[in-house]
Amino acid sequence: MVPPPRFDGVRFETYQADPSQPSQAAAVARLRAFADRPAPQARRRWFRSEPAAPAGGVYLDGGYGVGKTHLLASLWHATPAPRERKAFGTFVELTNLVGALGFQPAVHALKDHLLLCIDEFELDDPGDTVLVSTLLGKLADAGVRLAATSNTLPGKLGEGRFAAADFMREIQGLSGRFTSVRIDGEDFRHRGLPQAPEPSTDEQVTRAALRTPGSALDDFDTLAAHLATVHPSRYGALCDGVEAVFLRGVTEVTDQAAALRLVVLADRFYDREIPVTASGVPFDRLFGAELLAGGYRKKYFRAVSRLTALARDAGRPSGAGGAA
User: Fold this and answer.
1) Left (φ > 0), alpha (ψ -120 to 50) or beta: where does 241 sit?
2) Which residues contact 177 (CB under 8 A, 6 or more apart)?
3) How far apart are CA 274 and CA 228, in angstroms?
4) What are phi and psi of 94, to 5 degrees?
5) Do residues 285 and 259 make contact, with C-beta atoms less than 8 angstroms apart?
6) Strand partners, 182
7) What pLDDT digit, counting tens, does each position of 211-234 carry?
8) 269-to-25, 67, 237, 239, 263 alpha-carbon distances in Å
9) By the 8 A CB rule, do 136 and 174 touch?
10) 234: left (phi > 0), else alpha (psi -120 to 50), else beta?
11) Is the pTM of this model over 0.85?
């Protein structure tokens, strides 16, 4: 449970704070202080040790593309602890861990950590939210410090941000342990950049895939159908060994279940810095208007943002740098 490849090399020093958004530089300062905070220690008595004081947590409150994952990974890197005593993962990965080990073994596996970072805390499944909130309560009582970002709830139509008040309400008893760190700003992936590249033709996609080592070439409809047969927790494994993705015939998606699966896949592409070349509709038209007006709109906007960035990566000459 470590930051994914895209965020393995990030640090607070590489975060490009927008000068017009003072909350970004302030967030870096707050998180640096949190990283340097000593871990709570158990007090020794004659015949026993008292538990460590309950640990605190930080919640990064901001819209998509303001660098929450960059800062969360930077916190993980900056915390002075051995790699085996700090953990980083998405909410889905954490629920998968509990499912694989069982609740009490998961608590045992994580209780000696100094830090647990949870990215994309999913708040749209009440059962999983209660499960993970209970887990985090046990870990906090054991002295584990917590840091989190979150996704939106169904029906929450804010402009790109979830809002700390909603997060605190959903995690109920844990809310008192978290301090909200607000991060304002526009999507850094498109700050000052030209419009997304135009889609290629089917023939261009096929030719490019055949000359690219480690490429995966798929028809979009076939890939979408295959995703329905694979649990989203395994989408990362689908990307193993893939250096570049090539998709033919991208079409607008109107089915919500299919759209949410594509959101997860886009996140795994982005985590692994896999460039995407596609034909068909441009990525800013991937999700239908009804979906973009619904409760999951922020997830779709994040996916469009990330896929557009990966499409730019595909068109960038080898060795050229990308956005931080």
Assistant:
1) left
2) 54, 55, 56, 57, 140, 146
3) 21
4) -70, -45
5) no
6) 61
7) 999 999 999 999 999 999 988 878
8) 28, 17, 11, 7, 10
9) yes
10) alpha
11) no
